[in-house]
């Protein structure tokens, strides 16, 4: 072959003709000079070839074999050297080898794992964002070919036709007695927006609407939160992963005998099946999981579908199944019995006597609203020891029972002689919270999971997040009395990293099975019927949420000073907001929601821009 240019996308390299015949020179030092020259040429060409391949690692060149007839040199040593040079540095050998490697890389693409997320509320969106992001190489790949980069294909199954979960308010009205979400007409957040936003998506001017508020306000309407979640999904391309109108009906943990590609069966043609079996068939701790769901299409046809996933994140929330205490004699009550999930606006309680059972955040807010139109509102809670009147709102001790004449008895202890009874109540409105509910988990799920109604406890879970036995199943968003969105974000990142490291064969972040089960048993025994009281409840965090977030971040190896500043600032703002809220008297003006905050993460603090609270002044 003659000299000629070899063109690449970036440069032109001229390759010398290594097959041309050379005329021998008859001198005494010919062989020595020839050997020295050949060795120098070999080293030079090897360096050039290595440099070329380094700068063009993906070039693929196809050449046809070339036949050249030549006479062997008179020296056997020079013949062997020339033969080695031709074999090592011919363009066909040089590029054909790399072409084969390149084709092998194309034939073995990075493994893809199927991820299912149940629910497209705030927790589900945080989980989708976590699995769609590309982690840094030091966590994801480490440059080790034995630990291939893992790609995730994410499917978010949402039963409704829109995202947002509980924040997706039904504006049509007229359905308050069949409501499935606790959102109501005039609800405003009881946490400032500067605190409750996702860390990587601070609340901006675009996340507002025209409901009469100003963009500077910190406590915002539910409509603004819904708009914020829609903007979050749009910003990170999450909507393309959401399958709307999908109601999950069955979750099944697969045995190894069932864990094959035949389980990836769907009613419709989707090109998102896993291309390989679970690589951990000998590891029962990370089984694949089958989901079956019904999907309502735009033409209202219903299809039953089934697919097998490598990881499933349950993000269905815990504000859909009302919890109503077993109140003795409740069946004797002659008025209406409602739960806060059915409440929408106060007009229907005009001139009525209403009993609100439960005086936490929602109970206080609803009682305040109803008092604007009702005759009187009794607000009953175990934290109230004696009767206290605040205008039209009367705080009462715990509601103990209802007598046969419909009288409601209140008591601060077990002595019935100290009870106070009230007759003439028109409505009992239970603001008593919600139970955890997973309607797709049952006796056919092949899963050890306990969630007894009334106990508000899900077990066995490791760090209130992973199923202790099967970490391929996680529950994001179970803790309550927390700042929800930032906590969801940290939980989701921890789940993503645990899955990433496990599937890539790297050192995992979770302890052994025995340690996880022991920790889950210890956590579950900290609450429930045997240890009554909200502070001892299994999933109650409150002031412990900050250390919980730090622990998860350290476990997931993404804790740093920036995150510490963020968590510390959240704590300071949370404590300030809580102090102001608790200073409000039942039935009084909602003054604390007029306070406006701004973050100062560098100082692990915040600034008050405006406040009407006498105990809090702008700084």
Automatic annotation (TrEMBL):
Report which residue ranges the record marks as coiled coil: none
Sorted alphabetically, the keyword list is:
FAD, Flavoprotein, Oxidoreductase
The record's SUPFAM superfamilies line, in alphabetical order, gives: FAD/NAD(P)-binding domain
Instruction: Show the ranges annotated as biased composition (Acidic residues).
Output: 257-266
- Superkingdom is Eukaryota
Q: Where is this region: Disordered?
A: 1-20, 255-284
Q: Which GO terms describe its molecular function?
A: oxidoreductase activity
Q: Which InterPro entries match?
A: FAD/NAD-bd_sf, Flavin_mOase-like, FMO-like
Name the protein family: Belongs to the FMO family.
Q: What is this protein called?
A: Flavin-containing monooxygenase
